Every structure is written in C-alpha cells, then in structure tokens.
Amino acid sequence: SEVHTDAANKRLVGVVRDHGRIFATAGLATVAIQVLRASRQAVIPLWGDNAGLDAAQVGVIFGLSSAIDMTVFYPVGIAMDRWGRKWTAIPCLLIMSAGMLMIPFTSSFAGLLTAGLVTGFGNGLGSGINMTLGAAFSPAVARGEFLGVWRLIGALGTAGGPLLVSGVTVAMSLGAASLVTGGIRLPGAAIMFFLVPEPMRHGQANLARQASPPG
Questions:
Q1: What does the alpha-carbon distance between residue 105 and residue 160 come to, in Å, rounded to a whole number?
Q2: If both were cysteines, with which of 30, 56, 168, 189 could 177 make a disulfide (CB 3.0 to 4.6 Å apart)?
Q3: Helices assigned H by DSSP within the chain
Q4: How does pLDDT run across 51-96, given as a tens digit for each residue?
C-alpha cells in the first residue's frame, strides 16, 4: 500500500543519512575492488587477443588464474577472523592492481599468465570481502535497507569496471585502460587504511550493543 511504501522510503532515506560515512568510505573501497574484478575479466582476454594469443591460451590463463584464486579461500578466512578484514582487503586492492599494471607490459603467453596469476591471487585475498564488510557494518535497525544500499554500491562497481575499460580504450588505448584501472588501488587502499574502521571490531561492537539491556 501507499502507506507502507512511504514508510519504506523513509527508512531507506534514514539509512543513507545515518550511515553515509560508511557508504562514502567502505563503500568506495568496495567499488574499487569490484571495478578491478570486473576490469580484470574484460582486459585479460582483450589483451591476449592483442598479443596474438589464441582462445585456448587465453582459456588456460583464465583457468590458472581462477585456480590460484580458489587456493587462498581458506587461509584468507582464517586471516580475516584472526587479524581483521582490512588485513586482506588492502592487500587485495594492491596485488590485484599490480597485476593490472603488469598487463600492458606483456607480449607473450608467459607474461600474460604471470599477470593473470597475480590478479587471481589478489582477487582471492578479497574472497567474500564485500559481503563480510556489509554484514559487519549493518545496523540492528533497518538492516535490510542497509544491505540493499550496500549491494547497490557493489553493483555500481561491477558495472562500472567494463564501462571504464571501454571508455579509456576508445579515448586512448587498451593498455591505458589497464593502467587506469590499476591506478585505482591507491585511493581505494588509502580510504580503507585511513578512513574505514576495522570492520571486525565494528561488528563486535554492534553485537555488544544489541546484547546489552536498555537503560
């Protein structure tokens, strides 16, 4: 009904207003991670074609990159729980970006494979980081609205990566697009390091507040 719609809209506006700092800091860092992830999937096959590799070779690069990605799932989960989320989110940004910066300087199967393995390892370090951050920062009140906005922010990064790659490629070159997306690491990592509170401690504080009796 119209009354329920108005109430939902008010809750949504309230969530954006009350948690704007989290969206503007941790949310931007999440966008940077998603842009890198989406750009990686676009740039590697295009650069492989540019370097004269065939479809089978590009497939091997993607397969091995995904394999090294999966091998770090378990240790990353342990590191997140032991030291905190930022200990994996920041290396994820830096290492994935390093792989993207390597791509324009490759011209062979071995070179692009190395860059693909680096980006895969960096991506693996961020396994589940977006959902983990969203869960840690979500409030007890209007949690659904908060997570909805959080997912929207992540989706903007996922959609924005290929758009950024195509725009820079048209304006400059594919190599420049890889360098531009790789350069996202600096603001993303700086925001995560300096401006985002450690999500694990933030989540624990939320649980403590929910468990404490009112008054």
A1: 24
A2: 168
A3: 2-18, 20-50, 55-71, 73-83, 86-102, 109-125, 129-137, 143-171, 174-182, 185-190, 199-211
A4: 999 999 999 999 999 999 989 988 998 988 888 888 899 999 999 9
Q: How far apart are CA 43 and CA 22, in angstroms?
A: 30
Token duo for residue 136: 């840690």
Three-state SS at 183: coil
Q: Are 126 and 88 in contact (CB under 8 A)?
A: yes
Contact 15/146 with Cβ under 8 angstroms? yes
The pair of structure tokens assigned to 74 is 């378990």
Q: Give the count of beta carbons closer than 10 Å to the beta carbon of residue 181.
A: 26
Quote the tokens at residue 187.
């603001």
How many whole angstroms separate alpha carbon 134 and alpha carbon 206?
13
The predicted-structure confidence for 10-28, as pLDDT tens digits, reads as follows: 888 889 999 999 999 999 9
- The CA distance from 109 to 147, in Å, is 41
